[in-house]
Structures are given as C-alpha cells and as structure tokens.
Amino acid sequence: MIHFDVSPQLLALYIPLLGALLISLAGRWPNLRELVTLLTAGVLLYVVAGMAPAVLADGFWASFAKAPGLKLAEVLPGVWLELKVEPLGMLFALIASSLWILNSIYSIGYMRGNHEKNQTRFYVCFALAIASVMGLAFAGNLFTLFVFYEALTLTTYPLVAHKGSAEAIRSARTYLGILVVTSVCFLLAGIIGTYVFTGGDMTFRPGGVFRRALADGSLTAPTLGILFVLYMYGIGKAALMPVHRWLPAAMVAPTPVSALLHAVAVVKAGVFTVLKVIVYVFGPAVLVRYGVGDWLIYVAGATILIASCIALFQDNLKRRLAYSTVSQLSYVIIAAALLSPLSITAAALHIAAHAFGKITLFFAAGSIYTAAHKTEISQLDGIGRRMPITMAAFTIGSLSMIGLPPTAGFVSKWYLLQATWETDAPFVLVVVILSTLLNAAYFLPIVYRAFFVAEAKPHHEPHQSSADGNFGDHGDHHGHDAHDHGEAPWPVVVALSCTALATIVFFFYSDLAIGLANQLRSGLP
Amino acid sequence: MLDAFEIVPNLPVLVVTTPLIGGILTIAMGRGKGPWAWATLITGVVFYFTVLLMQQVLAAKTGFISYELGNWPRQWGIEYRVDALNAFILLTVAGVGFVTTLYAQKSVEKEIPQDRHNFFYAVWVLAICGLLGITVTGDAFNVYVLLEISSLTVYALIAMGKDMNRQALTASLRYLILGSVGASFILLGIGYLMMVTGTLNMEDMHDRLAALPDIVHHRTVLVAFAFLLCGLGLKMALFPLHMWLPKAYTYAPSAVSALLSATATKVGIYMAFRFLFTIFGVGFSFVAMPANLVLSVAACAGILVTGVTAVRQTNLKRMLAYSSVGQLGYIVAGFSLANVHGVAGSVVHIFNHAVMKGGMFMAAGAIMYRLGRCDLRSIRGLGKRMPLTMAAFVAGGLGLVGFPLTAGFISKWYLVQGALEAPHMWPVAAVVLVGSLLAVAYTWRVVEAAYFQEPEGESALVTEAPLSMVAPMWILIGASVYFGVSATFTGEISMRAAKSLLGGAP
Amino acid sequence: MTGALGIYNYWIYVVLMMIGLYGVIAKPNLIKQAIALGLFQTGIFLYYISMAVIDGGTAPVWTTILDGAQKYEGPYDNPLPHVLILTAIVVSVSVLAVALALIINIKRTYGTIEYDEIEAMDQADKRADYQRGQVTDAADDVEHKLEGHHHA
To answer: What distance lies between CA C121 and its chain's CA centroid?
Structure first.
C-alpha cells in the first residue's frame, strides 16, 4: 500500500536517497549533477525546517508520549525500523541539512578546482551519507539508530578512500576499522544487552528504558555500568580517547568531506548518539542515582586536554583541525556527563555552535589548498594578504573555537560554565579554562602568521611538488605558480563567507537552537 | 487408493521421488541444453512442492505432517515427518538448488566439457534429491542411505572440476575418504541406538531412550552418542574436522561450490539437530553430556581460526570456503547454547548463510567465467567493469559481516541475544562479534581491490557477466537483503522450530 | 559362553575397523586407502549382523510356505539388521567404485597414486596459484612511488 500522505521525517530520509539516484543518473553532465545536488539540499532544508514549529510547540512532550512512531518495517518480530521526531534530532537534522547546501556550493568549487576524479561517486555517496544522517537524527529507537549509524560509516568510507592513493586506502582502513570494531563489538553488544534486560524495549523516551528492570532487580548497578561503558566506547564516532584515531585518519579525504562529515555530520552523529543514549536510554536521573556515569567526566576531560596538546604540535593544518575536533567533541560529552538539565542544554547547543565554526575552519583550509596547494601551517606566512576573505573567515572560526564573543562558540560555552557552577564541578571548570587557553595557543599563531608575518621569498626549487605530496600532478593544471595566487574559486569563497557569517549570526540570533535545547530540557523528568 | 495420485497429501514423498526419477532421466536428455532445461524443470517443480509443503505445515494443527511410506505403520516402515524446522530447510535447499540450477548453465558450459553435461546435471539433481531426502525423513537409517546418495553425488560433482584444475580430483578423493569415515561413524551410532531401542524411527527412539532408567550411565547410549557426534562433526565440517572443505569448495566447478556451500553442510547441521535434539533430547545432549561445551569451544575456535585464515587467502573461492567453515561455527555455537534464541539464531543462519554465501560463490563464479581466475589481483578495478557482480559480492560480504539490514545481522542478533541469555556463555557473544570483524577484514580486501585499484592486463577489458548468471546471483543476494529488512517470516519460523526442538518431541 | 570372549564377534568387528582406520590414515598408496576403507565398512557390517543374532535363533524364513510342514515356533534372528546391511553393502560398493574412478583419473593426470607425491605436486600448484593471485598490500603497492616527496 502506498501512503500519499507522507510524513516529513520520512521525506527527509527519502529526499537525499532520491537525490543520490538522480545524481548518479545525471553523472554524465556535471552541471546538471551539481544542480541536482543543490536542489536536493534545498528541498531537504525546506522539509526539515518545516518540522521545527511542531517540535517547538508548547504541548510537545505531552503529545510525544502518546504519538506512535512512524514504523517503516518490522525487521525482527517486535523490532521495528521506526522514526520519531524529538528536539535533539530536530536540532541535528537542521544543522546537517542547512550546512549541506553551503557545503555543496563549496564542493563544486573545490572538486573542480582540484580536478578530482570520480566526482559522481563523490556526490552520490555524499547524498547517501546525508540520508543516513537524517535517519539517525529521526531514529525512534535504538535499533533504528544503530542501522543508520552503521549506514553512515559505510557511505562515508568511499569518501575517505576517494583519492584511491596508498595513503587514502590505508587511512580509510583505519577509519573503517576503528568505527566498525567499536560499533560491532561494543555498541551492538550494548544494544542487544539493553534488549535482553528490558525485555525488548528499545524505544527512546525521556527518563530511559531501564527503570522497570532496575526496580524489579533483574538489572543490577554493575551490569548497568558495563552497559554504559559499552555504549560510550561503542559510539566510536564520538571520538572519546583512545578510540579517536579514525578522525585524523579521515583527513585524507577531500576537504568538503572533512568539512561537512568530519567536522559536522559524522562526528556530531557520534556525540548526538551519546546524548541520545544518556537522555533517552539511561536517563540522567537513573545515571545520577546509580553513579555509573561519573567516570565519563574524567575521560572526556582528559580527551579535551590531551587532544588539544596534540593539536598544538601538528603542522598539517587539517590534522590540527581534526585534533581540535576531537577535543571539542568531548566538550559535548563532558557537558552531557554532568547530567544536569542545564548541562544537557549546553551539550545540545555545543553540537550546533561548534558546527558553524569548525566547518568554516575546514572550508578555509580547503580554500588554501585549492588556491595555494599548501597543507602545512609553516607554509602559511603572509597568506592573509593574498586570501583576505579566507583568512578572515578562519579568524572568526578560531574565535568561535576559543569561545570568544561575538561568535557561536561563546553561547554554548556560557551555558556549559553555568552548568559547572550549578552542579559544582570544579574539575570541569578547570578543564574548560585550560582548554580555552590551549585553543587560543594553537589557533591564534596561525592567524598571526597569516596576517603579520611576511611571506617567504619565492624560491624556485622543486618545492612545489613536495607541497603537493601525493596529491599528484594537479599543480600542473594551474597555469600559475603557487606563489602567485589569489583567492580560491568563487563558490569556495562564497560558501566559507556564509558559514563565517553564520558563526557570528548564531551569537546574536540563536533562538531556534536554544528553543530546541530548552524543549529537550523541559522533557527531562 | 485415490489419494495416491493427488499431489498435496503426497508432498513429503514427492519432494524426494521427483528429483530421484527426474535425475536419472536427465541422462537421456541429449547433449545440448536439454539436460540443463530438464534439471531446471525438476528443481523448479521440487521448489514449488516445498513451498506447498511449507504452507501445509504452517496450516497443520499439530505443527507437523507425518507421512508413512507405502502406508506401513511407522514401527515397521519409513515415516517422513515434516515440521517447521525441516520444512524451512527443505525450502532453503530446494530454493537455492533451483536458483543455482538457473545459474549453472553458462558456468557449466565454460567449465565442463560438453559431452559430460547430461551426466553432470543427472548427478546434480540426484545430489539435491539426497539432501532433500535427509531433511524430510524421520527414519534414522533412511538418513544414512540418503546421506550416502548425496555424498556420492557430491564427490562426483566436485571431481568434475578437474578440467579447470586437477586438484579437484584429490580434493574429491580426500572428501570421499573423510566423508565415508564420517558416514560410517553415523551408521555405527545408529546401530547402537537401534540396539538399545529396537527401532529406527526417530520419535520412537526418543520415547524409548527417555524411558530408560539410567540413561547417563547406559554405556551403549554413550557409545552411540560419541560415534554420532564425531560422524556429524565430520559431515558438517565442524572445526577442526573441516580439513576436507576448503579444498573441495575451491576446486569444484563454480556452480557446484555455490550449491554445496548453501546446502550440503547445512543438511549436516540439520542432522545434528535431529540427533542431538529430537532423538537424544536437550536434557541428555546438553545437560547430562557436555556436548554444549565441546561444540561451542570447537565452533568458537573455528570462527576465529578460519576467519584469520580467510583473511590471508588470495583466491576468492578459497577465501569464501574458509569463511564458510567460520559461518558454520556460528550455527553450531548457536545451537550449542541450547536456549530458544540461540537455536533460533542457528536455524535462521542456516537460511541466511545459504543465500548470502550462495550469492557470493555465484559472483566468484561469474568472475571465473569472464577471467578464468578469481584472485585478488585479477579483480582489481573490476568494480567498474563488472558492477553488478562486484556489488553482489560486496552486498553478500556485508551480510557476512552482519551489517544491519542484511540477513546476517538478523542471525547475529539472535545469536548474541541467546548467548547473553544463557548462563556464563557471554564469551560466545564476544566471539560472534569478533568473528564479524574478521569478515570485515576479508570482505574489505575485495572492496579495496575492486573499487580503489586500477585494473591491469585482461581485466581492464572484460564486461559484465551474462544475465543468466547475474540474475540468479541477485535473486539470492536480494533475498538476503529482503530477509534482513523484514525478517518476520524467517524469524518466526525459526523461533517455532527452536521451541519445538527444545520442547522435546511430543 | 560368557564374559568378554562370549561376544568375540564384536571383538572381531572392532579389530577389523581399527585395521581399516589405520590403513586409511597411514597408507600413502591411494588403492590401499580404498581397500582399508572397504575393510573399515565391512567391520561395521559384521557388527550389525552380530547384533541380529538371538541365542538359539534360526534364519528368519517362513518355513510353512516352503514345505507345507509344521510351523517352527522357536526364536528367529532379527531380520531387520540384515536388510539394513544389504543396503549398506550396496552403498559401500558404490563408494568404492567412485573412489576407484577418482584414483584412475588421478593416475592419469598426476602419473602416480602415492599420496605424498601428489600432495607435494598440489602444494607446488597451490603456492604458484597463491603468488600469482597475490596483490601486494593495496597500501604498500604504490609506496615506493611516493617515497621521497611523501614528507614535504
């Protein structure tokens, strides 16, 4: 039976899938193909944005408890593939779908500017990855979440291995290896464990699913603790140390992939899942009562500091950004681990706030690579004068990472600091302060170098090819020398200007995100 | 009697007699496409019969159908007895048998000389006949006879690969010797059981064994149990008794590998179900005797060791063969848990693995058809040249890994659930999950070679395999995806089978 | 006759089976292996036949039909194992036939029926096959090309 009355969350899943199909059909005509991508992204944002008012409405939670999820298929007797909209997923879907448009514009400039091969495969996999993200965001139960979590790993693998070079394939192996090992060995074990202990209940609901099992004694606190560990390390995408190594490895991918997927969609899928598990599977109240989640604060805190220290010593720009992402992800986890309503709000907000800043930074890195073929920070002397817009955007992104006003990063950090005072957690406070200093220490020198250090004299040595590294002969396609470059192609510049602007706008106008985060908080029992 | 000529009441026996007579007649079908067309017809009809039979069983109030051959009461004659378990396995064997027959045409044309096609298909149909017979019968000695019918024909089928590689002959002989020893052990075991119970009917055997006063110390029963366990272990290629399997599957004609991987060892496992659960009963096999410990340790070791071996292979068929031994380990580990979800996982994996591995062997066969070889070097860049074949291989591989929405995930779900529910069996869950990582490793070697490397030599010129190979391949792979997205049918059937196995015979 | 000796035919069956099993495992000559397999199975036949015997029993033949004289009322040996073993003998003969057919083919293609010689040839084939099909690890394959300008 065909339902013509399609609900929006289903549309959000189908639109990118349909987009992927159309893109592959239009593969022969690049302009048409890119048009299809942009159209799909636009329609998707329209559909996703259209769902927001209902989630923000006052009586949302009352109807949420009653409304059945949208059931797609009964995979096992009693185990459904089910979609259900809730504020956190809404927030995540909004971020991913709005940034997908900008990222698509950026991709056009980047992929063409760098003469990448297999562009059709790239756009198809990208659309499929977005479809997985939508499914993940609107997943109504743990099983559905796991399905799309794994789908996201699989659809992003070809994007990481895109170049097909030895390094790309090796890094893609690390990527796939770590993500699959963690999800199969720990996450799946945790999910099946949940299924066994709750007697088949895996539906997300505020307050968690374990209450009955804990009450009747079939689930004990130590087992609950083991399940919690399985989840936290099973969600490898959250890059909690020591399972973070896939993220730097994924930087071998073309920059649009690093920008949208490995700064926004995939990594956010990780912390989003962490949040969702804490809020809807365990329930903060349960975790507080049994005290099984306390260790997470320390692990996340350590991850923040260690990753920042590693970032400090990276010369490769994208790798430094990757380690910065690892540390920023743990901000979300540490906020969630505080388990107070306010800190959960902070965690949700940080998912949004970090997205705009980090995608800007990656866009800037890709812009530099496209225009100047530079990948190392030590090569960036004086580049601010040649690429003023790119580097200005980079500066805004850096400020957001440090958490200074007027940028998005400040908003979430403000909430996080409030939550630390509220819950009286001096350790977190110290971590936040130290990491802010470290952030400044590894971002500001880049800005300084770009604007205030004079450009090195052009030597005509075979330096050019080494800067390209394994990226092959692309340099030859450019008629001009790398030392004689201006800004990157216009789609790249437009996209990064937009995201930089968005980073600032988010500071002044974050009602939507705060509204959704507050809605999430109001649902906590 | 009128109903002697009706189809529906006689379905249990028609499932065996149709291919038995049809198989012999195949020889007379000439040298052209005749034998293949005839074999397709026969296997198609048999498949239809098994579908009808399944409907009958699901509709039956008692949950099973009993058919007494020649109307002899079961004390003297042979009883065919079909319940949810063997109806499901019959459906699997006949279904995969039919689809592989469709597939076989081109592959056999390439790999086996024209003048032997009629013999090939005759033996092929008889092999399917033997496998179906083992599954349908409720008589222990009948199992042995049909087991030998299927084994003898399978030896011949494997040896037919000699024109591609002479090692097919030694592989076949090795299988023959080990297989005959295994079958003889089973024969001995049946003999001892008959000595104690005085019957050959499985249900009666169970009843009379259950009536014995001190069965745990009854030496004849213990000897029977030991002989049967060894014989079954050999027949179902349980690690470390699997030595015959990799070579046999590697050098058999491609179509034969696909058929065998999907059916032959599966039927071996079905026999284990019947002997361990139906005849001896859970209480004896898994509580009084340490069969669960022996089996689960062997299965887990098998999953890990063969997984690692599979990762090191370069020949795709050999890789798949080792992977098959590992996957059989999952099935054995499942039923050795002796709880509902474990056994259900094991039953459903018999089906799921049959469609996935069958499809993958077909893909390997399609590569053989185009390139004459199927190793990691020759498949480089094949993702673009043979997109459908490689996509089928990868989809099957994802199933073996157990990615969600593939059939393999369903099995894994049940198995892990079963392992977590059984007391102190959580290491089995860990091994099942680690095993799927090994599957990622060997599947990914193929993905990397096929999609991210440039083709070299002749593989740069090949085109997609013919439709008559690709279509059957995708029927199986499609089934593995369909039953991964919606496993209510397979899940319910296997739960029903598991409950009836564990509940003991009525 | 009682005790262990009283069931001497069971001893014979065990001894025959073990001789067969030993031959299958230890003899390198394929024909000898096939003979040993036959011996092994014959042991099992004897076991079945022994099982059928009943003390003082006679052949299970319906004598009244044969000579019209009076009916023999005494115990009969169990005919069922005999029937079963008739089938098993047929099976065993077929197995032997298939085995011999394979051995003939092996002799034609390998030129020998000594298992260890065949095994050596097979191993050599397999090694060659492995090496031909081996891809140097995808990642190492292009390694040397990148050396030098990998680290800028």
So the answer is: 24
